[in-house]
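Form 7-S
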Amino acid sequence: MPLSTPTPAKGAGRALGLTTFAFTACFAVWTIFAILGLQIQKELGLSETQFGLLVGTPILTGSLSRLFLGIWADQFGGRIVNLAVMLLSALATWLLTFATTYPEFLLAALGIGIAGGSFSVSITYVSKFFPPEKQGSALGIVGAGNVGAAVTKFAAPIVMASMGWKGVANVWAIALVLVALVFFFLTSDDPELAERRRTGAKPRSFASQFEPLRNIQVWRFSLYYFFVFGAFVALALWLPRYLIGVYGFDVKTAGMLAAAYSIPASIFRIYGGHLSDRVGARNVMYWTFLVSVVVTFFLSYPPTSYVVDGVRGPISFRLATGPVAFVIAIFVLGFFMSLGKAAVYKHIPVYYPKDVGAVGGLVGLMGGLGGFVLPILFGVLNDLTGIWTSCFMLLFLIVSASLIWMHLAIRHMEREAAGATLDSLPQLPEMQPIHGEREARALAPKLIEDWRPEEPQFWEETGKKIASRNLWLSIPALFLSFAVWMVWSVVVAKLPQIGFAYTTDQLFWLAALPGLSGATLRIFYSFMVPVFGGRLWTTLTTWSLMLPALGIGFAVQNPETPYWIMLVLALLCGFGGGNFASSMSNIGFFYPKREKGNALAMNAGLGNLGVSAMQFLVPLVITVGVFGFLGGQPQVTEEGGELFLQNAGFIWVPFIIASAFAAWFGMNDLSSAKASFSDQAVIFKRRHNWIMCWLYTGTFGSFIGFSAAFPLLTKTQFPEINVLQIAFLGPLVGALSRSFTGWIADRFGGARVTLAVFVLMMVGTVGVLYFLANKDAPGAFIGFFVSFIVLFFATGVGNASTFQMIPAIMRKEIDRLEPQMSGADRLRQAEKESAAITGFTSAIAAYGAFFIPKSFGMSLAASGSAAPALYGFLAFYVSCLLVTWFVYARPGGLLFDVENRKRSGPATAAA
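Output:
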């Protein structure tokens, strides 16, 4: 049982000191590639991405092992588990010296990574010795073992200079064995394990220890730790490489300077634990994130030279961060990261005293994954952008997201606790002396409190008119979102003609990145309407489209625009992709179940028309100066013609402004649609949520992915075809088929229609494969194009049929899972979960806009043919067909009785 005495248990001091010492040794081994990797990179001639993978691989093993090692420490005792971890890590470090090839180094790195799992064992073991009032400080001291990274940076270059990198590995392995033996023989079992052995009680099962991982706050803590710890590890590994590349230091100096970051980020974790005990973890977290936002923004700014047209002529100056300012900034960042690490772990033993191993292991796992993923991304960003500070740009985005999520969660908690009091306050503190009940009513949020769409009389007299107005205001906003989201599919095909010297792979990256960011944003947008209200959220997200629309318009006018700016603009186009999830969630609340399928099909289908309209309209508007002198000068093509490619972005600006105003003044919020993120997070427990993600990826993921990839794919395979004249037809067919075939799923059943859809998609894919294999034959392009039209048509029908399935599935599931609820409550719960699942499945499926263009790009780069990618898509459609049949459509499937409308005969009824 967890410790409940107000004072530490016997042996607590010795356990704390030796555990911290052992964890320091483990951390030194865990980050050994920060120094050895530099020499290995030189010997093997590794690229930046390969170097990032080598440095990050130990972090992967250490991260993934933390969850299970934490649970085993709970079950079998941290003392014996930590001994095993250190001995296995030492063995892998010794075997590293026998590696000669890159795959062998990666394999050794996986074994060395086990050392990182020591953290979850250490915090589980030590927490059992201390009462809650002192656990923050105790775990802060343990976490200070991160200073092992600095030990490696200080000592490894010196040892490597005299003994080579293999000597470093041998010395570190021997030292870890000695530390392991000292730790094991001088410590004792924790009080909880000793008590269990005395009473003969059995440890808790694995399943029961996983139970707390369902709580959303555990995953929020994981995001925090992904930054404060994951980014710390990533920078500890990356800084020597950064300092050598940016400032030209040798490996010894780079290691010493990187230690100026590692040491405070480790030692001051002790102070962070003390502060968390004294002033509260929330305050510490706020200061951590706020300062980190400022510092990462400062470090993100690349060295830039400016020429300003002054009164007396051009004024030139340069902004760049020198080595002194950089080291100071890194010191500050490391200091506040150390406070944040302690603050995150202050919560875990207090709120989960019985589950420190599982919860602490998961949070540590996610933090460790940050240490694995981020160095790889740093290398990828370097390769893609050519800008050293791109690593800090990524960290700025992560910490900003963490701060926003934490603040929103705290505000939601405060509003739930004091909602009526907050509503009675004026909008501005200056108004308090003249604020009364009349003013409170006038300024209150405009909500529709009474909403009963399932009642025929209410629907015909009141509801239908309001719902229709919101639908027809939502459609143009979604239309514009899709147009902006997919605009790169046309722009990238024109960039080479106006002087942008990008490779085919770089062009496919630009076409794919809007899909990646749009899909990721959809995950968050799925839950925003019940939190903020559909009216406000639709308005804000529509305004957000101005950033990529204006940005593209300015960037394409100069072929010297850096590639990284193009990448940023491609990511910003994802704002348009994210809007779909919130739009569908919002409209779903307005309609009764008998009309929901058709309403969602209209919203989505006519919104999807934005892709087709964009691919039809943009090739026209880029040929003329639509905006006159305001739009800028035309670009001269290689053939001597003129293009106004900036119009591809500018043309949407007036429509975005009009749509945003229309949404704000014309749409409504529903009180019945209000729900917190935690209320909606129940869908992550529903297995049908994940199944429908798979199926909707097959339909919508294919639609949006083929929309993004088709123009560029056609240009590479049939260069003689002016694809931009016909590219819009595919998305047009897909959007129209979605809009006007929703009734088929309503009549015949979504599961049965979805089965037919995947069969048709398999036929279309086989057709594309055939005509690509015979692309020199007469009529090959016509066959290729018709096959894609078949694919687009099938995806549209499937988009409608899969969305029709979701409400039917959840009504049956809620009836089964929540029988204690009243019929009306079950219906409301099913509606809320259906809306959340609709948004979330659209988020996952939207990754097709990234993976399909990238799959074609990788396939062409590797084999010169698109066939390998298409064979992969074909196998995926087969899996979707089988899943639909076995789970939903077959006799005994979840929707079989619903869709076949079985009715009892007279004899049965009489009986």
